[in-house]
Amino acid sequence: MELVRRLRNRVDAGLVFMTYMNPVWSYGPGRLAGEAVEAGLDGIIISDLTPEEHTRFREQGDPRNCVEGLDVIFLAAPTSSDERLRKVSRASGGFVYLVARTGVTGKRSDVESQVPATIRRLRKYSSLPIAVGFGITSARDVRQVWRYADAAVIGTALVRFVDEHRHDADLPRQVGRFAREHLIPG
Q1: H, E, C per residue of the chain
Q2: Residues 21 and 112 in one domain
Q3: CA proximity to 134, closest of 52, 73, 76
Q4: pLDDT of res. 58
């Protein structure tokens, strides 16, 4: 939370956690939400939380069982049915996160093969921005995503770079240079 506070004082960009439900339960959803909102976090992606379960938690009315005050962002996939896309779109706050590929995050995506059609389907159900991630690893991938979506998520590429250079004294500057040279289209 301290990192969120420090970042919030320096940037206007939206700040979003990505996690799983187990750490949220362990910490306490209500406690997490309260501290996160106070620190300046905008949203949370709980990758194994379904819209149905989130609705159930909210309907129970117990603030310890939900993350009130944060935009909860749900995942959609190219393999999602139209009914699933509708549920994800209705439940999401802030934006909808479209998985560019099925399988493991960080592997190569094929943006052109499924992303455009899935975005067209999603836009029938929601006016929220659509961010595309999972396998977006290069400026070329980002350029392709930007043709169809509102945002490209490049998390794994940055995490991998940070891991490889974690002992370098000027890591923040190197991360910025890496992003500008390899991930952000010129």
Answers
A1: CHHHHHHHCCCCCCCEEEECHHHHHHHCHHHHHHHHHHHCCCEEEECCCCHHHHHHHHHHCCHHHCCCCCEEECEECCCCCHHHHHHHHHHCCCCEEEECCCCCCCCCCCHHHHHHHHHHHHHCCCCCCEEEECCCCCHHHHHHHHCCCCEECCHHHHHHHHHHCCCCCCHHHHHHHHHHHHHCCC
A2: no
A3: 76
A4: 76
**Beta carbons within 10 angstroms of residue 136's beta carbon:** 29
Q: Contact, 111 vs 131, CB < 8 A?
A: no
User: Counting Cβ atoms within 10 Å, is residue 71 exposed (0-12), middle (13-18) or buried (19+)?
Assistant: middle
* Contact of 36 with 44, CB cutoff 8 Å: yes
Same domain, 67 and 79: no
Mean pLDDT for the chain overall? 89
- Domain containing 46: what range? 1-72
- Last residue of a domain, which of 27, 52, 72? 72
Between the alpha carbon of residue 172 and those of residues 25, 82, 158, 161, 162, the distances in Å are: 32, 41, 11, 11, 9
Average pLDDT over residues 58-81: 82
**pTM (two decimals):** 0.87
The distance of Cα 158 from the centroid of its chain, to the nearest Å, equals 14
Q: Which amino acid is at 147?
A: R
Do 164 and 81 belong to one domain?
Answer: yes
Give the CATH number for residue 151.
3.20.20.70
